[in-house]
Amino acid sequence: MSSLIISYISSIQSEFNTGQSTEHSFRSALKTLLESLNPKILALNESQRITGVGMPDFTIKDTKNNTINIGWIEAKDLYVDLDEKKNSDQLGRYLSAFDNFVYTNNLTFKFYRGGKLVESVSLGSCDKKTITWNTSDLFGDATVKLERLLVDFLSYSGQTISSPAKLAHAMAQKAQLIKYAIQHIFQEDGDQAGLYSQYLTFKDMLISDLTEDQFADMYAQTIAYGLFAARLHDTDLDTFSRYEAEKLIPKSTPFVRWLFRQMANDDEFDDRVAHIIDDLVNIFLHTDVAGLLKQYNKETGRNDPIIHFYETFLGEYDPAMRKKRGVYYTPEAVVKFIVRGVDHLLKSEFGLSRGLADTSKIEHSFLEQGKKIKKQVHRVQVLDPATGTGTFLDETIKYIHDTYFAGQAGAWSGYVGQDLLPRIWGFEILMASYTMAHLKLGLTLEHLGIDSSDERLNIFLTNSLEEPHDHIGSLFSAQLARESEEASKVKKEQPIMVVMGNPPYSVSSNNKGEWIQNLIADYKKNLNERKINIDDDYVKFIRFAQYFVDNNKEGIIGFITNNSYVDGVTYRQMRKTLMESFDKIYIYNLHGDGRKKEVTPEGGKDENVFDIMQGVSIIFAVKNSTSKKLASVYHYDSYGKRDIKYERLEIQTIEDIKWEKLIPKEPYYFFVPKDFALEEKYNNGVKLDQLFSSISIGIETQNDVLTIRETVNDAQMVLNDFKHLSEDNIKTKYSINKEGRDRQISRAKNDVLSNDPHIVKILYRLFDDRYTIFSGCARGFLAWPRSLSSHIIQPNLSLIFTRQSKNTSSHIMVSKDMICRHALTGETTFSPLYLYNKGLDGEMTRSVNMDMSIVQGICERLGMEWDDKSPNGLLRSSQGQGDGRSTVGPEDIFDYIYAVLHSPTYRETYKEFLKIDFPRVPFTKDKEMFRQLVEKGHELRLRHLMEHPQSDTLITTYPVGGDNKVEKIVFDASGDDGLLRSSQGQVTGKVWINATQYIDNVPQVAREFYIGGYQPAQKRLKDRKGKVLSYEDIMHYQKLIVALTNTARVMEEIDGINFL
Question: Quick check: 851 and 844 in contact, CB under 8 A?
């Protein structure tokens, strides 16, 4: 029996008997017990101020060195259930972060090591009214066991971390706690928090849209990796502390060094964060970081242990972030290729025999104290404007050393100080990456025999795309301003000759400062586009680099970027501007666009060199003259699997690549090969946006979940709710947590109450009709209903198409109803065949939505008359169709167009043109050919509207009963003999929707058929996965198979007419 434990039990019972006890009442007894069991420890009962930010109630410290933490205890009230599932969030955070941990309610004790439960013991239980002690065990095994476990817990010496993976895990868990603590401090203290002024400074001077959570994340990572850097430079492995770390941060990183100086100031630094940092310090105390890095390099065989360790850390800290940031950590093969390429171009285009190692100088003007003075500066100055973790600058240093200083170790040291570091520059906006870049370059220089610890590296914490800010007062802002000022001098004064790197990709760029917006305006001149989507950050960085080279009047850009600009129509002015600035442009197209489903020319798999969907390319742009001629443009395609692309990049050089010289033509100036041999013939066709007087994009709801309903009854329910419920009740019922500029419940409700809206059918996706509420009012129930949509309330037909087809030209459809903006992939454009207008007498009149001068030309070519009111149709009696012999009606032209645009030969022949702009349709002068194409187009139109007389004639069966729930969708085309099943020359199979039910005799051609970027047969079932199919769903799917099967047949028949 343990007398200390019995004394503890007595104290607990006495405190409980007062009837006034709280969770905190029992901590004195626990503290006394712990310090009595081991007089060499201090059981620090943390204040609510500390525990509120994610720290446990007790921190166990060594009395000889209070920076060393032995263990942690979270002490709940007596009646609290310690079930792990019920306390998963807090407990999970603690178990991840604290290696030696006790979880207790003062009666039951659970002991954890490395996040796993190793032992537990219980003295009793409590129901708020009574403590029930385990009397049968109280004076025996339980007390003895508890004393033994506590003694073991208090004597824990800490685990020496012996693997890089364990260190990454430990760092990540502590960084998460630091992040959590800062978030909590901001919530509790608001703008009174000490760190809040730093957050505001960052927001004001660097990242205008920085959120509090993002700052907490950035700060936590910087602390974690700053300590990593400090410990890496620590030669005394027996000691390490927050205070020591500040002195160990290299002087080459002044901003981080200053940051750690603040962290070491106990009087000013927030103790709620300092406690957690001390825990992280304690981990590093038990770690030989330098030794681990060497081990990591051997284990992985990677040449860049710092970066790859950081990736491991990110994988533990935030796996989603690691995936998101994968684009920034450029593959070594890409970096080396660009550095080698720049070096070659400096030699071949500028006559600099030592390329990147060149030491020649030029005379350049600088502004000092308001006066211009001339100085001798290096000619080859290199800038990475999106430095990240320093990969490109690091490779530049290593490449120069390995290529130009083999056997010249004696000359290397002097060269680095005088002719290398003074002309290498880097800008970085993220504090953690900035820290990493300094660490990385410092280690590389150290490895190459250079001590750079006392010399400032020219990597600055700044926003490349912003002009410098004025100093705004605080010490923190002064330090940040100093970084910005140094970067500003580079922007304004240094003659940068080489700009290289991997700039970030961000379609919704927040870099909208006046300076960069004025520069990027050059790329938007005379575009005459409704929507100009060229504000991606990578485009701004290209313009930024172009600005430097233009100012210097010579130079090179070497970037790897998103490749949208090489052939995107809206980037045509950007391409022209680049051709005007540079003399030679090389595009090394790495493809890998997952959205376009790119394949190799042989049809094989094409992979991206990054873990992203967007294709990428490398650009080398060379300016070495003042010629007014447009640049010569060279192009190379690299297709295939990722490792094959890496192998090519490792061995290829600019001089041995078989570049294809392009001749970019106005107005598009494409940076990719284009076959425009048929341009003259194609341009003789009629352009759809010229034929149709009015066109529009589809309806944009900005809240499909609310506004698009599967049934009329659902839509009616929503309409009634908006009429009768309050705004708050609507938000609650429909889980609306966020509103936008164009989607506000107040406006939607007012729209419903004021404008008498209709419930209308809408083509949501291909062959997927749904319902919405339409008033015609913008920013009402629908964000952008489009004025042209009002004409579809009346009887009408709409041709649906897109302006540019990315990979196939199947973006053609028809509808009699409203059309959603994303009915096709990309942006859906439509044109109604008829326009309606209400006269003064209230009567509705109809006109044809076509340019009648073009229509007249078509009729004259055919030798036929125009008649939009003839009762005698070409194929059936209907207004809007001619008689097929002497007259032409609007639906004839509609159907003719529909047939032509479904011709596989037309799509293949004119595929390059169809990627650029709205389709052009060739109109025949042969009456019989015209009639045949109208007939085929008419059948396709009826098939797609599911109005064909044979639409209900099913070719499939659904033979097995069941619950009709879509679970796992599988297509099986094998017969009982294991061979492919076929019917009438077509492969057919079963489409299984669950383990027992299937649709049988589905032609493979129908299942795999593409329209508008979708495979409608597959999408129909995928969209209903987890749902039970209704009778209408089952029949609709089978009718869809009929429509798609016959579409494939009719398309072949159209080609048989040989109209091209």
Answer: no
pLDDT digits (tens, 9 = 90+) for 817-831: 999 998 887 788 999
Decide if pLDDT at 730 tops 60.
Answer: yes
Question: What's the topology of domain 3-154?
Answer: tt1808, chain A (3.90.1570)
If you count DSSP H runs as helices and E runs as strands, how many of each does the chain have, helices first?
A: 38, 36
What is the Cα–Cα distance from 286 to 67, expressed in whole angstroms? 13
Q: How many CA atoms lie within 13 A of 347 on its CB side?
A: 12
373: three-class secondary structure by DSSP = strand
Least confident of 11-25, 262-276, 412-426, 487-501: 262-276
Residue pair 76/105 in contact (Cβ under 8 Å)? The answer is yes
- Closest Cα partner for 258 from 435, 32, 496, 439? 435
Distance, in Å, from the CA atom of 779 to the CA atom of 705, rounded to the nearest integer, reads: 16
Sign of torsion over alpha carbons 781, 782, 787, 788: negative
The values of phi and psi at residue 584, to 5°, are -140, 140
CB 992, CB 970: distance < 8 Å: yes
The answer to whether residue 453 scores a pLDDT higher than 70 is: no
Q: Does 872 score more than 80 pLDDT? A: no
Sequence spans of domains, the chain? 3-154, 514-662, 688-944, 970-1050
62-66, 294-298, 494-498: the lowest-pLDDT one: 294-298
Across the chain, mean pLDDT equals: 87
- Angle, vertex CA 116, rays to CA 115 and CA 119, nearest 5: 130
Average the pLDDT over 630-650 and give the result.
96
Question: Contact, 1047 vs 944, CB < 8 A?
Answer: yes
Residue 685 to residue 207: CA distance in whole angstroms: 50
Query: Which has the closest alpha carbon to 73: 109, 47, 49, 126?
Result: 109
How much is the average pLDDT of 572-599?
A: 94
Whether residue 531 is predicted with pLDDT greater than 80 in this model: the reply is no
Residue 912 has phi, psi (to 5 degrees) of: -65, -35
Point out which residues pair with 559 in neighbouring strands: 501, 619
How big is the chain, counted in residues? 1060
**What backbone torsions phi and psi does residue 580 show, to the nearest 5 degrees?**
-75, -30
Confidence of residue 662 (pLDDT cuts 50, 70, 90): very high
Whether omega before 667 lies within 30 degrees of 0, making that bond cis, reads yes
Q: Name, in order, each residue with C-beta under 8 angstroms of 980's C-beta and a sequence gap of 6 or more.
A: 973, 974, 987
- CA atoms of 380 and 360, how far apart (whole Å): 8
Q: Which residues pair with 820 in a beta bridge?
A: 699
On the question of pLDDT at 1 being above 70, the answer is: no
Place of tokens 């729930």: 965
Q: How far is the C-alpha of 892 from the C-alpha of 910, rounded, in Å?
A: 23
What confidence tens digit (pLDDT) does each residue in 167-186 have? 888 888 889 889 988 998 88
Residue holding tokens 């890409």? Answer: 334
Max Cα–Cα distance, the chain, nearest Å: 115
H or E element, residue 813: strand 813-815
The predicted structure's pLDDT at residue 615: 94
* Separation between Cα atoms, residue 941 and residue 1046, nearest integer Å: 11
Q: How far apart are the first and last CA of the chain?
A: 101
Q: Which two tokens stand for residue 591?
A: 């493809």
* Token duo for residue 302: 């990677």
Could you tell me which residue, 540 or 472, shows the higher pLDDT?
540
How far from chain centre, in Å, is Cα 875? 51
Looking only at the bridges linking them, the beta strands covering 584-591 and 498-501 are unpaired
Give the burial class of 996: count Cβ atoms within 10 A of its Cβ; 0-12 exposed, 13-18 middle, 19 or more buried: exposed
Burial 879-896 (b: 16+ CB within 10 A, else e): bbbbbbeebbbbbbbbbb
pLDDT over threshold 60, residue 327 = no
Tally of CB atoms within 10 A around 222: 23
Average pLDDT over residues 531-536: 78
| Close Cβ partners of 859 (under 8 Å, ≥ 6 residues apart) | 865, 866, 888
